[in-house]
Structures are given as C-alpha cells and as structure tokens.
Amino acid sequence: MTGGAGRLLKALAGLAIALAAGLSLAGAASAHQQKAAITEVSANPRTGLLEIAHRFYIHDAEHALGILTGRPVNLHAEAGDRDLFAAAVAGSFALTRPDGGAVALVLLGTEVERGYLWVYQEGPADALTDGLEIRADALRDVWPEQVNTVNIRTNAGVTSLQFQGAAQTLRARLPQDGG
Fold first, then answer.
1. Residue 30: what pLDDT?
2. Cβ neighbours of residue 78 closer than 8 Å, sequence gap 6 or more
3. Nearest CA to 58 among 110, 109, 108, 112?
4. How far is Cα 120 from Cα 82, in angstroms, rounded to an integer?
C-alpha cells in the first residue's frame, strides 16, 4: 500500500472510531436514568371505576428489573418481563380508605409507548374520597432517590403527592366539588 493510501485508511479508521465513540456517549447520555415516575388516578363516570395509570421511563424500568432479577431484561419485546414489572408495581402501590380499609385494585396490564412503559390498574370509583392514604413505592427499593408523583384528578381539581426520601404513605386532601 502506498503512503498516501495508508494515511487515508488510517484517517478513515480514526474517523470511524471517533464517530463510534461519539455515538456510544450519545447513547449513554440518552439512556441516563431519570429515577422518576408519574401515576395518574381518576374516576371514570362511564364505567364507575377508578382508573390508575403508572408511567415509567422504560430504561429505568428495564434497569431496575434487571437489578432485581439479576438478568438482562427487554420490556419492549418480552411480555413476560412486562408482566413481572407490572406485578412489582402493583405490589408497591396501595390505596387505603380513611376508615383503614384497603381498596381492592386489579392489575389490567401494560403498554409500551415511545420511551415509556405504562402499567394500568383499576378499582372502585367510590374509593376516591378525601383522606385517601396512598403508598407509591415503585423502584424506591432499588433507588432511594426515586421520586414517584401521584396526581389524583377529581371534578374539583388535581391533587399531587410526591413520594421521595422517607415518605412511605401520604394522605390525599382532595378538593371538594362545589356543585
């Protein structure tokens, strides 16, 4: 190989390595864990059910489930992995009525949408009362810095609770409907 061709190949190889390293770093940056989740709770007047939708960054969910199971996890492709994660979320979320009675919740399933994994539950709409106590511990056993926000929607407005630090259960003070 001539000197000019050799230098060209070395330059191209160096460029390819630099591009690969840049793409690798970009991927790592975009895959950074957010350690935050949002749960929406609302009553559906048509069905008479309380609808609960938990939204997790799929990368966080995969990483956490991988830590818990000790194996690689693929929530995009593996329904079994999604079911396992959903069961863990359902086990870490609870509603308690003001009289101390647990609200029976049913795990409905999951959905992957863009970069998120959704976990759906439902329960009786009459559970949505002032003084409802909520536990939302998903992923907090894996990462103590995990922040879970629960938004409770009623006709009178939205009440938001943030689970972080030592908070294990929080009581919802729901706005009263003026009508």
1. 42
2. none
3. 112
4. 12
Tokens 């101390």 belong to residue: 100
Segment 21-62, tens digit of pLDDT: 333 333 333 456 789 999 999 999 999 999 999 999 999 999
Query: Which residues neighbour 160 within 8 Å (Cβ) at sequence distance 6 or greater?
Result: 149, 150, 151, 152
Please check whether residue 68 is in contact with residue 84, taking contact to mean a CB–CB distance below 8 angstroms. no
d(CA 84, CA 72): 13
- Cα torsion at 56, 61, 62, 63 (round to 10°)? 130
**118 close to 110: Cβ distance less than 8 angstroms:** yes
The SS3 assignment for 146 reads coil
Q: Which residues of the chain carry a pLDDT beneath 70?
A: 1-32, 176-179
Secondary structure element (H or E) that encloses residue 135, with its range: strand 133-136
Contact 166, 179 (CB under 8 A): no
User: What pLDDT does residue 84 have?
Assistant: 97
Q: Are 138 and 37 in contact (CB under 8 A)?
A: yes
The pTM of this model reads: 0.80
